[in-house]
Design brief:
Number of domains: 2
Order of helices and strands: EEEEEHEEHEEHEEHHHEEHEH
Shape: globular
Structural class: alpha+beta
Largest sheet: 9 strands, mixed
CATH class of the largest domain: Alpha Beta
CATH topology of the largest domain: Creatine Kinase, Chain A, domain 2
Helix content: 25-40%
Distance between the termini: 54 Å
Bound molecules: adenosine-5'-diphosphate, manganese (II) ion
Number of strands: 14
Strand content: 25-35%
Length: about 325
């Protein structure tokens, strides 16, 4: 039987790209995923007078929503001369991932997000605020947990799709959650994270809920939403000296990283709510108020990984994985 392939890509919305997708019917038994096209004038990727953009499949997995032989297909956007579109951040990651592949960089990303329902965070009462943050993180019970049905369905969908999801937890603010992807190589973690985001939006849609990656969904004394990025190389997984070298290397290029870690980062990295101020760089063992945390177990074992706590929930993992790989691997390799 003919089957459905959902072609997914990143659009040209500024300052934060959005996901788009549409369905292609492929013939029974067809294993090649052909290139396809779309109207770039409707996605901020082309002028109407020259609107064609190209979709090039780069990663496919089973579609857990439609089931059967149906597929989800992550695509890069190309110009009609087959060169990368200016919005194609994946094309910039590929050569960096290849250049440093021998150092075996691994990423584990903690994606925080917030459900909105009826125009307010899921769990916020109409016209007011819930009880202050205290018991929502990893909480249980109907007065603390909002949207678990969606979260469970999303977790199952990611597993059925074969994505490298490694856990979930309820977060500090009502309606706020996290899933983790990895550890995986730079291109894999970014492809899988974008696919997991698409599944989250798609599943929440059926519940009349919108999942958002807004880094500071509620102003005031409420936690923002981040995408802590855990990172290691082969040598960091055996040497504490290289753990420290990696932190120092990140410190030397701190502002370049922060500028590319997601729009509105100054509103989230305030120095409060388990963050370090965006304009200062620090690292420390077990310190959730540092830019980069060395987990206590890593200090104890004298090897492992580091956690860059700065990336926003709305970051582009193709960009973050490229910057961290380039900064740390070039420092460790020299
Ligand atoms: P936190 O205590 O900060 O909430 P989590 O358990 O949510 O930590 O996430 C830790 C992440 O670190 C997971 O995604 C995990 O896959 C990842 N991770 C574990 N070991 C490594 C490693 N050696 N290199 C990179 N990432 C790793
Ligand atoms: Mn976490
Ligand atoms: Mn978290
Ligand atoms: Mn974390």
């Amino acid at each position: 039987m003919a089957y459905k392939a959902e072609y997914i890509w990143l659009d040209g919305t500024e300052p934060t790209a959005r996901l788009r997708s549409k369905t292609k019917i492929l013939e029974d038994g067809a294993t090649d995923l052909p290139i396809w096209g779309f109207d770039g004038s409707s996605t901020n990727q082309a002028p109407g007078s020259n609107s064609d953009c190209v979709l090039k499949p780069v990663f496919a997995c089973p579609d857990p929503i439609r089931g059967g032989d149906d597929k989800l297909v992550m695509c890069e956007v190309l110009l009609t001369d087959m060169t990368p579109h200016p919005t194609n951040t994946r094309a910039l990651l590929t050569p960096i991932a290849e250049k440093f592949a021998a150092q075996e960089p691994w990423f584990g990303i903690e994606q925080e997000y917030t459900f909105f329902k009826d125009g307010r965070p899921h769990g916020f009462p109409p016209g007011g605020f819930p009880a202050p943050q205290a018991f929502y993180y990893c909480g249980i019970g109907a007065d603390e947990v909002f949207g678990r049905d969606i979260v469970e369905e999303h977790l199952d969908a990611c597993l059925q799709a074969g994505l490298g999801i490694s856990g979930i937890n309820a977060e500090v603010m009502p309606g706020q959650w996290e899933f983790q992807v990895g550890p995986l190589s730079p291109l894999e973690v970014a492809d899988h994270l974008w696919m997991a985001r698409w599944l989250l939006y798609r599943i929440a849609e059926d519940y009349g809920v919108s999942a958002t990656l807004d880094p500071k969904p509620v102003k005031g004394d409420w936690n923002g939403a981040g995408a802590h990025t855990n990172f290691s190389t082969k040598s960091m997984r055996t040497s504490y000296e290289d753990i420290i070298k990696a932190c120092e290397a990140l410190g030397k290029r701190a502002s370049e990283h922060v500028e590319n870690y997601g729009a509105d980062i100054e509103n989230r990295l305030t120095g409060q709510h388990e963050t370090a101020p965006w304009h200062e760089f620090s690292y420390g063992v077990s310190n959730r108020g540092a830019s980069v945390r060395i987990p206590w177990q890593v200090e104890k074992d004298g090897k492992g990984y580091i956690e860059d706590r700065r990336p926003n929930a709305n970051m582009d993992p193709y960009v973050v994985a490229r910057l961290i790989t380039e900064t740390v691997c070039s420092a460790l390799g020299s």
